[in-house]
Amino acid sequence: MKLGNIGENIPAEWEAPLLVELVNPKQWKTISTTDLISEGFVVYGANGKIGFYSEFTHEKPTLMITCRGATCGNLHVSEPYSYINGNAMALDDQPTELIGLNFLLHVLKARGLEDTISGSAQPQITRQGLGEVRVPLPPLAEQKVIAEKLDALLAQVEITKARLERIPEIIKRFRQSVLAAAVSGRLTEEWRDAQSDSHNEWRWVTLGEIADIKGGITKDSNKQDSTFIELPYLRVANVQRYYLNLTEVKTIRIPQNKVEELLLEHGDILFNEGGDLDKLGRGWIWEGQIEKCSYQNHVFRARLNDRSDSPKYVSWWGNTEGFEYFIRNGKQTTNLASINKKLLSNLPINMPPNKEQTEIVRRVEQLFAFADTIEQKANAALERVNNLAQSVLAKAFRGELTADWRAANPDLISGENSAEALLERIKAEKASATKKHARRS
Prior knowledge:
It is built from twelve helices and 20 strands. By secondary structure, it is of the alpha+beta class. The protein is elongated, with a radius of gyration of 32 Å.
């Protein structure tokens, strides 16, 4: 929840000055990237450090706002002795002993600066755009209490957020370990030992021995000299590892007499020819998601001869043990690799009996469903944590975090300690600084 312009929702003891009454927003001269050097004073661009320069613009840490590009409104604090480039708006002349640097940073994060952005083709924030921005100004003692509370609370939020953000990688490794156990036989070892059937031995086969393998439609087939039918077809981008991405499925013209042999059937196992190493041999199962769908020549389909065999087991093998085989034996150039039909046909597979294949698929899918549930809960928790940070900031600058403190410390929010007196001191100091700048110029 963003605060927007400050108005009626702040405590009566606070002031709501314009941002430009507290600081002097300024864009400094932009340094070309060609003028940056390998060492020197740190240079800040629109989104943080971009290099070094022989001069600095700011001796002290300074709050800055990204003022150009898609990330307009982002906030950063510079290191001492830094150069703040023109793609960031430096909030100069901040009297940090009267309004804290971290305090103002938290205020602007809570408020948000989306309403100050102008321009469509190239979003930007100008000094004029910041001219109507008001910010809450509590008494100095209360500022310090708020900043301390926020530092502690937001640190806990960040720790929680970091832990939640690690969960997808943990889940990924879990799925990989499940598949490794599945194709090695470890996942069903106890189940296998408990079977009374003596015909439960695994056997080594090649993919070509258990499946018919075929490449897909080529661009050369897309001619105008015959009767054609336009059909959806899968490309390398559609065939991912362990899933199919069908958000964008293109169509291709196929000769009518080739349609039947180029149509995918439920249970067909798909393998990518290659490209970069991540694409090499990756694939998944076609389960009839689109009626009458074909596939391009950079995708192979393997159709099992024995329909009681599990296409999922074979695909899991291809994506795990098979990947190492493809890396070792595929044709490779710099960062690129490919496999052909012969190499794919020779893919060695350790095949369990049909009954155990079924049990492996059941167990893997059960464990994957468990992992999916955890991942969904983690994503929901991460969304709540992201909202929590903004909620804490909003409460802080509505005065809710320090309501009890104000009630217990009336002398620290009144008289010469009031926000009104503080604002007058800030204005006087800013006016004095302006006169000094004028004399220097």
